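Sample pair:
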Amino acid sequence: MTPLVLGWLSRKLTAGSLDIDLPDGKSVTIGRGAPRARIRFASEAALRWVLKDPRMRFPEAYVDGLWEPENDELLPVIEVAIRNANGLLSSASRQLRIVRARLGELNTAISARRNISHHYDIDTPVYRLFLDRELHYSCAYFPDPDMSLEAAQEAKCALIARKLDLRPGAHVLDIGCGWGSNALFLARNHDVHVTGITLSERQLEVAQQRAREAGMEDRVTFRLEDYRRTRGTFDAVVSIGMFEHVGRPQYNTFFARVRELLAPDGVALLHTIGSAHRPDEGSPWIRKYIFPGGYIPAASEVMPAVERSGLVMTDFEVLRLHYAETLAHWHRRFQDNRAEIARIMGERFCRMWRFYLQASEGTFRWGGLEVFHLQLTRDQARIPLTRAYLFSDSSAG
Protein backbone atom coordinates (compact mmCIF):
# COMPACT_ATOMS: atom_id res chain seq x y z
CA MET A 1 0.00 0.00 0.00
CA THR A 2 1.37 3.39 -0.92
CA PRO A 3 1.61 6.15 1.73
CA LEU A 4 -0.71 8.25 -0.47
CA VAL A 5 -3.53 5.70 -0.30
CA LEU A 6 -3.02 5.12 3.42
CA GLY A 7 -3.09 8.85 4.06
CA TRP A 8 -6.33 9.22 2.08
CA LEU A 9 -7.95 6.36 4.01
CA SER A 10 -6.87 7.73 7.36
CA ARG A 11 -8.42 11.08 6.52
CA LYS A 12 -11.66 9.39 5.51
CA LEU A 13 -11.90 7.33 8.70
CA THR A 14 -12.83 10.03 11.20
CA ALA A 15 -14.67 7.89 13.76
CA GLY A 16 -12.37 5.12 14.96
CA SER A 17 -9.53 3.11 13.53
CA LEU A 18 -8.82 -0.23 11.90
CA ASP A 19 -5.59 -2.18 12.28
CA ILE A 20 -4.86 -4.37 9.25
CA ASP A 21 -2.40 -7.27 9.42
CA LEU A 22 -0.95 -8.77 6.22
CA PRO A 23 0.57 -12.25 5.69
CA ASP A 24 4.11 -10.87 5.28
CA GLY A 25 4.04 -9.53 8.82
CA LYS A 26 3.32 -5.94 7.88
CA SER A 27 0.60 -4.02 9.71
CA VAL A 28 -1.09 -0.77 8.80
CA THR A 29 -3.51 1.37 10.74
CA ILE A 30 -6.10 3.58 9.12
CA GLY A 31 -8.10 6.13 11.03
CA ARG A 32 -7.46 7.12 14.63
CA GLY A 33 -8.90 6.70 18.07
CA ALA A 34 -11.81 4.60 19.30
CA PRO A 35 -13.65 2.47 18.47
CA ARG A 36 -10.80 0.26 17.34
CA ALA A 37 -10.79 -3.13 15.64
CA ARG A 38 -8.25 -5.46 14.06
CA ILE A 39 -8.46 -7.71 11.00
CA ARG A 40 -6.09 -9.94 9.06
CA PHE A 41 -6.16 -9.89 5.26
CA ALA A 42 -5.18 -12.94 3.24
CA SER A 43 -3.09 -10.79 0.88
CA GLU A 44 -2.25 -7.22 0.03
CA ALA A 45 -3.87 -7.77 -3.38
CA ALA A 46 -7.15 -8.61 -1.65
CA LEU A 47 -6.91 -5.40 0.37
CA ARG A 48 -6.28 -3.34 -2.76
CA TRP A 49 -9.29 -5.00 -4.45
CA VAL A 50 -11.54 -4.11 -1.49
CA LEU A 51 -10.47 -0.48 -1.45
CA LYS A 52 -11.75 0.06 -4.99
CA ASP A 53 -15.34 -0.29 -3.72
CA PRO A 54 -15.30 -0.84 0.05
CA ARG A 55 -19.06 -0.68 0.70
CA MET A 56 -19.63 -3.64 -1.62
CA ARG A 57 -16.33 -5.48 -1.53
CA PHE A 58 -15.54 -5.37 2.19
CA PRO A 59 -18.43 -7.74 3.05
CA GLU A 60 -17.84 -9.72 -0.14
CA ALA A 61 -14.25 -10.27 0.91
CA TYR A 62 -15.34 -11.50 4.35
CA VAL A 63 -17.77 -13.97 2.80
CA ASP A 64 -14.99 -15.24 0.51
CA GLY A 65 -12.61 -15.67 3.44
CA LEU A 66 -10.22 -12.91 2.33
CA TRP A 67 -10.11 -11.35 5.80
CA GLU A 68 -10.83 -12.43 9.37
CA PRO A 69 -11.55 -10.36 12.48
CA GLU A 70 -9.25 -10.61 15.47
CA ASN A 71 -10.42 -13.31 17.91
CA ASP A 72 -13.35 -13.96 15.54
CA GLU A 73 -15.05 -10.83 16.90
CA LEU A 74 -16.89 -9.41 13.91
CA LEU A 75 -19.10 -6.77 15.55
CA PRO A 76 -16.25 -4.38 16.54
CA VAL A 77 -15.07 -4.38 12.91
CA ILE A 78 -18.59 -3.65 11.73
CA GLU A 79 -18.89 -0.77 14.19
CA VAL A 80 -15.83 0.94 12.70
CA ALA A 81 -17.13 0.27 9.17
CA ILE A 82 -20.61 1.64 9.91
CA ARG A 83 -19.36 4.78 11.63
CA ASN A 84 -17.23 5.62 8.58
CA ALA A 85 -19.22 4.18 5.65
CA ASN A 86 -20.60 7.45 4.30
CA GLY A 87 -17.21 9.15 4.45
CA LEU A 88 -15.88 6.79 1.77
CA LEU A 89 -18.38 8.05 -0.80
CA SER A 90 -18.17 11.26 -2.75
CA SER A 91 -21.34 13.28 -3.18
CA ALA A 92 -21.53 12.28 -6.85
CA SER A 93 -21.07 8.57 -6.01
CA ARG A 94 -23.81 8.77 -3.40
CA GLN A 95 -26.27 10.31 -5.85
CA LEU A 96 -25.46 7.66 -8.46
CA ARG A 97 -26.07 4.87 -5.96
CA ILE A 98 -29.39 6.43 -4.94
CA VAL A 99 -30.54 6.48 -8.57
CA ARG A 100 -29.47 2.86 -9.11
CA ALA A 101 -31.19 1.77 -5.90
CA ARG A 102 -34.45 3.42 -6.91
CA LEU A 103 -34.43 1.65 -10.28
CA GLY A 104 -33.96 -1.63 -8.42
CA GLU A 105 -37.08 -0.92 -6.37
CA LEU A 106 -39.47 -1.12 -9.31
CA ASN A 107 -41.12 -4.17 -7.80
CA THR A 108 -43.64 -5.44 -10.32
CA ALA A 109 -45.80 -8.42 -9.41
CA ILE A 110 -43.24 -10.71 -11.06
CA SER A 111 -40.06 -9.15 -9.66
CA ALA A 112 -41.56 -8.79 -6.19
CA ARG A 113 -42.32 -12.52 -6.12
CA ARG A 114 -38.78 -13.32 -7.30
CA ASN A 115 -37.19 -11.01 -4.72
CA ILE A 116 -39.19 -12.48 -1.85
CA SER A 117 -38.35 -16.01 -2.95
CA HIS A 118 -34.64 -15.15 -2.91
CA HIS A 119 -34.70 -14.57 0.84
CA TYR A 120 -37.66 -16.43 2.29
CA ASP A 121 -37.78 -19.62 0.24
CA ILE A 122 -34.54 -21.05 1.60
CA ASP A 123 -34.96 -24.17 3.75
CA THR A 124 -37.34 -23.40 6.62
CA PRO A 125 -35.28 -25.53 9.06
CA VAL A 126 -32.55 -22.86 8.83
CA TYR A 127 -34.93 -20.23 10.18
CA ARG A 128 -36.08 -22.58 12.93
CA LEU A 129 -32.47 -22.81 14.11
CA PHE A 130 -32.14 -19.12 14.98
CA LEU A 131 -35.63 -17.61 15.31
CA ASP A 132 -37.95 -18.02 18.28
CA ARG A 133 -40.30 -20.99 18.57
CA GLU A 134 -43.14 -19.15 16.79
CA LEU A 135 -40.94 -18.09 13.84
CA HIS A 136 -41.32 -14.33 14.17
CA TYR A 137 -38.89 -12.74 11.71
CA SER A 138 -39.16 -9.09 12.70
CA CYS A 139 -38.23 -6.77 15.54
CA ALA A 140 -39.23 -8.02 18.99
CA TYR A 141 -40.31 -5.68 21.80
CA PHE A 142 -38.37 -5.67 25.08
CA PRO A 143 -40.26 -3.82 27.85
CA ASP A 144 -37.97 -5.84 30.14
CA PRO A 145 -34.42 -5.98 28.70
CA ASP A 146 -33.79 -9.35 30.36
CA MET A 147 -36.79 -11.11 28.84
CA SER A 148 -36.35 -14.05 26.49
CA LEU A 149 -36.67 -13.70 22.73
CA GLU A 150 -39.90 -15.73 22.87
CA ALA A 151 -41.40 -13.39 25.49
CA ALA A 152 -40.26 -10.28 23.60
CA GLN A 153 -41.85 -11.47 20.35
CA GLU A 154 -45.11 -12.15 22.15
CA ALA A 155 -44.90 -8.69 23.73
CA LYS A 156 -44.52 -7.24 20.22
CA CYS A 157 -47.66 -9.01 19.04
CA ALA A 158 -49.58 -7.87 22.10
CA LEU A 159 -48.51 -4.26 21.55
CA ILE A 160 -49.60 -4.41 17.91
CA ALA A 161 -52.92 -5.93 18.90
CA ARG A 162 -53.53 -3.03 21.29
CA LYS A 163 -52.65 -0.53 18.57
CA LEU A 164 -55.18 -2.20 16.26
CA ASP A 165 -57.79 -1.76 19.01
CA LEU A 166 -59.35 -5.07 17.99
CA ARG A 167 -62.97 -5.92 18.64
CA PRO A 168 -64.27 -9.50 18.94
CA GLY A 169 -65.23 -10.91 15.56
CA ALA A 170 -63.12 -8.42 13.61
CA HIS A 171 -61.70 -9.39 10.22
CA VAL A 172 -57.98 -8.66 10.02
CA LEU A 173 -55.69 -8.55 6.97
CA ASP A 174 -52.02 -9.37 7.59
CA ILE A 175 -49.95 -8.13 4.63
CA GLY A 176 -46.70 -10.07 4.48
CA CYS A 177 -47.76 -12.67 7.04
CA GLY A 178 -44.54 -14.69 6.99
CA TRP A 179 -44.93 -18.11 8.57
CA GLY A 180 -48.23 -17.03 10.14
CA SER A 181 -46.87 -16.13 13.56
CA ASN A 182 -48.71 -12.84 14.15
CA ALA A 183 -51.91 -14.04 12.46
CA LEU A 184 -52.07 -17.08 14.73
CA PHE A 185 -51.37 -14.93 17.79
CA LEU A 186 -54.18 -12.49 16.98
CA ALA A 187 -56.71 -15.22 16.22
CA ARG A 188 -55.78 -17.21 19.32
CA ASN A 189 -55.84 -14.30 21.76
CA HIS A 190 -58.35 -11.79 20.39
CA ASP A 191 -61.28 -13.71 18.91
CA VAL A 192 -60.73 -12.39 15.38
CA HIS A 193 -60.46 -13.93 11.94
CA VAL A 194 -57.20 -13.21 10.12
CA THR A 195 -56.39 -13.41 6.42
CA GLY A 196 -52.64 -13.57 5.87
CA ILE A 197 -51.04 -12.99 2.48
CA THR A 198 -47.45 -13.71 1.42
CA LEU A 199 -45.43 -14.04 -1.79
CA SER A 200 -43.31 -16.89 -0.41
CA GLU A 201 -44.50 -20.39 -1.30
CA ARG A 202 -42.55 -21.98 1.55
CA GLN A 203 -43.90 -19.52 4.08
CA LEU A 204 -47.41 -20.25 2.84
CA GLU A 205 -46.91 -24.00 3.23
CA VAL A 206 -45.65 -23.62 6.79
CA ALA A 207 -48.37 -21.14 7.78
CA GLN A 208 -51.14 -23.36 6.46
CA GLN A 209 -49.64 -26.39 8.19
CA ARG A 210 -49.42 -24.51 11.49
CA ALA A 211 -53.05 -23.44 11.20
CA ARG A 212 -54.10 -27.06 10.61
CA GLU A 213 -52.03 -28.35 13.51
CA ALA A 214 -53.50 -25.70 15.83
CA GLY A 215 -57.06 -26.47 14.71
CA MET A 216 -57.50 -22.84 13.66
CA GLU A 217 -58.37 -23.18 9.98
CA ASP A 218 -61.77 -21.65 10.67
CA ARG A 219 -60.16 -18.51 12.10
CA VAL A 220 -57.00 -18.07 10.02
CA THR A 221 -56.72 -18.11 6.22
CA PHE A 222 -53.42 -17.90 4.36
CA ARG A 223 -53.02 -17.07 0.67
CA LEU A 224 -50.21 -16.67 -1.87
CA GLU A 225 -51.15 -13.17 -2.96
CA ASP A 226 -49.74 -9.76 -3.84
CA TYR A 227 -51.30 -6.95 -1.76
CA ARG A 228 -52.14 -5.17 -5.02
CA ARG A 229 -54.53 -8.01 -5.91
CA THR A 230 -56.23 -8.34 -2.52
CA ARG A 231 -59.93 -7.57 -2.42
CA GLY A 232 -62.40 -7.17 0.41
CA THR A 233 -63.05 -4.99 3.44
CA PHE A 234 -61.23 -5.48 6.73
CA ASP A 235 -61.71 -4.07 10.21
CA ALA A 236 -57.96 -4.01 10.71
CA VAL A 237 -54.92 -4.13 8.44
CA VAL A 238 -51.49 -4.96 9.79
CA SER A 239 -48.15 -5.23 8.03
CA ILE A 240 -45.04 -6.28 9.95
CA GLY A 241 -41.64 -6.19 8.28
CA MET A 242 -43.05 -6.23 4.76
CA PHE A 243 -42.96 -2.53 3.85
CA GLU A 244 -39.18 -2.72 3.46
CA HIS A 245 -39.85 -4.82 0.33
CA VAL A 246 -42.37 -2.44 -1.25
CA GLY A 247 -39.95 0.05 -2.85
CA ARG A 248 -40.42 3.81 -3.10
CA PRO A 249 -42.08 3.81 -6.54
CA GLN A 250 -44.93 1.77 -5.02
CA TYR A 251 -45.52 3.79 -1.82
CA ASN A 252 -48.55 5.62 -3.18
CA THR A 253 -50.05 2.34 -4.39
CA PHE A 254 -49.41 0.61 -1.06
CA PHE A 255 -51.15 3.20 1.10
CA ALA A 256 -53.98 3.65 -1.40
CA ARG A 257 -54.60 -0.12 -1.21
CA VAL A 258 -54.56 -0.04 2.59
CA ARG A 259 -57.21 2.68 2.56
CA GLU A 260 -59.36 0.82 0.04
CA LEU A 261 -59.17 -2.40 2.07
CA LEU A 262 -59.81 -0.75 5.43
CA ALA A 263 -63.37 -0.42 6.73
CA PRO A 264 -64.54 3.15 7.46
CA ASP A 265 -64.07 2.51 11.19
CA GLY A 266 -61.01 0.31 10.76
CA VAL A 267 -57.46 0.66 12.10
CA ALA A 268 -54.20 -0.10 10.30
CA LEU A 269 -50.75 -0.61 11.80
CA LEU A 270 -47.53 -0.48 9.79
CA HIS A 271 -44.42 -1.91 11.47
CA THR A 272 -41.35 -1.13 9.37
CA ILE A 273 -37.66 -0.49 9.63
CA GLY A 274 -36.93 3.18 9.06
CA SER A 275 -33.99 5.55 8.95
CA ALA A 276 -33.47 8.32 11.47
CA HIS A 277 -31.42 10.22 8.92
CA ARG A 278 -31.98 11.68 5.47
CA PRO A 279 -32.89 9.32 2.61
CA ASP A 280 -30.01 7.09 1.59
CA GLU A 281 -29.50 4.14 -0.74
CA GLY A 282 -28.49 1.84 2.12
CA SER A 283 -26.06 -1.02 1.78
CA PRO A 284 -25.49 -2.14 -1.82
CA TRP A 285 -24.25 -5.50 -0.47
CA ILE A 286 -27.47 -6.14 1.47
CA ARG A 287 -29.50 -5.16 -1.58
CA LYS A 288 -27.59 -7.52 -3.87
CA TYR A 289 -27.20 -10.58 -1.69
CA ILE A 290 -29.81 -10.45 1.07
CA PHE A 291 -32.86 -8.33 0.17
CA PRO A 292 -33.00 -7.57 -3.57
CA GLY A 293 -35.53 -4.87 -4.38
CA GLY A 294 -35.63 -3.72 -0.76
CA TYR A 295 -35.32 -0.21 0.65
CA ILE A 296 -35.29 1.27 4.17
CA PRO A 297 -37.21 4.56 4.11
CA ALA A 298 -36.73 7.77 6.01
CA ALA A 299 -39.92 9.02 7.66
CA SER A 300 -39.89 11.96 5.23
CA GLU A 301 -40.35 9.52 2.34
CA VAL A 302 -43.30 7.71 3.90
CA MET A 303 -45.42 10.59 5.17
CA PRO A 304 -46.23 12.19 1.80
CA ALA A 305 -47.64 8.90 0.52
CA VAL A 306 -49.74 8.53 3.69
CA GLU A 307 -51.07 12.04 3.21
CA ARG A 308 -51.95 11.43 -0.43
CA SER A 309 -53.81 8.23 0.44
CA GLY A 310 -56.42 9.98 2.55
CA LEU A 311 -55.52 7.95 5.62
CA VAL A 312 -55.16 9.73 8.96
CA MET A 313 -52.08 9.07 11.07
CA THR A 314 -53.30 8.67 14.65
CA ASP A 315 -50.05 7.52 16.25
CA PHE A 316 -46.36 7.34 15.37
CA GLU A 317 -43.89 5.53 17.62
CA VAL A 318 -40.18 4.86 17.23
CA LEU A 319 -38.84 1.65 18.73
CA ARG A 320 -35.19 2.39 19.50
CA LEU A 321 -32.63 -0.42 19.82
CA HIS A 322 -35.28 -3.15 20.11
CA TYR A 323 -34.19 -4.56 16.76
CA ALA A 324 -30.52 -4.44 17.78
CA GLU A 325 -31.39 -6.64 20.76
CA THR A 326 -33.48 -8.93 18.57
CA LEU A 327 -30.62 -9.37 16.11
CA ALA A 328 -28.19 -10.08 18.93
CA HIS A 329 -30.48 -12.95 20.02
CA TRP A 330 -30.69 -14.24 16.43
CA HIS A 331 -26.93 -14.10 15.96
CA ARG A 332 -26.23 -16.02 19.17
CA ARG A 333 -28.67 -18.72 18.15
CA PHE A 334 -27.28 -18.78 14.62
CA GLN A 335 -23.75 -19.30 15.91
CA ASP A 336 -24.89 -21.90 18.44
CA ASN A 337 -26.40 -23.89 15.55
CA ARG A 338 -23.82 -23.00 12.92
CA ALA A 339 -22.65 -26.57 12.32
CA GLU A 340 -26.18 -27.71 11.47
CA ILE A 341 -26.86 -24.65 9.32
CA ALA A 342 -23.59 -25.27 7.45
CA ARG A 343 -24.63 -28.87 6.88
CA ILE A 344 -27.86 -27.65 5.27
CA MET A 345 -26.65 -24.55 3.40
CA GLY A 346 -22.85 -24.63 3.33
CA GLU A 347 -20.12 -22.60 5.02
CA ARG A 348 -20.29 -19.69 2.57
CA PHE A 349 -23.95 -19.18 3.44
CA CYS A 350 -23.01 -19.14 7.13
CA ARG A 351 -20.39 -16.45 6.59
CA MET A 352 -22.79 -14.37 4.50
CA TRP A 353 -25.61 -14.60 6.99
CA ARG A 354 -23.37 -14.00 9.96
CA PHE A 355 -22.22 -10.78 8.34
CA TYR A 356 -25.83 -9.87 7.50
CA LEU A 357 -27.03 -10.43 11.07
CA GLN A 358 -24.16 -8.58 12.71
CA ALA A 359 -24.11 -5.75 10.17
CA SER A 360 -27.84 -5.31 10.72
CA GLU A 361 -27.40 -5.27 14.51
CA GLY A 362 -24.58 -2.76 14.15
CA THR A 363 -26.63 -0.48 11.90
CA PHE A 364 -29.41 -0.37 14.49
CA ARG A 365 -26.86 0.44 17.19
CA TRP A 366 -24.66 2.96 15.35
CA GLY A 367 -26.07 3.59 11.87
CA GLY A 368 -29.38 5.32 12.51
CA LEU A 369 -31.85 2.51 11.80
CA GLU A 370 -35.01 2.29 13.92
CA VAL A 371 -38.42 0.67 13.76
CA PHE A 372 -41.43 2.86 12.98
CA HIS A 373 -44.98 2.10 14.08
CA LEU A 374 -47.54 4.04 12.05
CA GLN A 375 -51.13 3.75 13.24
CA LEU A 376 -53.54 4.80 10.51
CA THR A 377 -57.32 5.21 10.28
CA ARG A 378 -59.92 6.67 7.99
CA ASP A 379 -61.58 8.46 10.94
CA GLN A 380 -59.49 10.35 13.49
CA ALA A 381 -62.19 9.80 16.13
CA ARG A 382 -61.81 6.00 15.92
CA ILE A 383 -58.93 5.78 18.44
CA PRO A 384 -59.11 6.76 22.15
CA LEU A 385 -57.99 10.31 22.87
CA THR A 386 -54.97 9.29 24.94
CA ARG A 387 -52.39 6.50 24.61
CA ALA A 388 -53.41 4.94 27.93
CA TYR A 389 -55.11 2.04 26.13
CA LEU A 390 -51.73 0.95 24.74
CA PHE A 391 -50.44 0.18 28.21
CA SER A 392 -53.47 -1.51 29.73
CA ASP A 393 -52.69 -5.04 30.96
CA SER A 394 -56.26 -6.06 30.29
CA SER A 395 -55.81 -5.56 26.56
CA ALA A 396 -52.66 -7.65 26.26
CA GLY A 397 -52.82 -11.06 24.64
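The longest helix spans residues 347-366.
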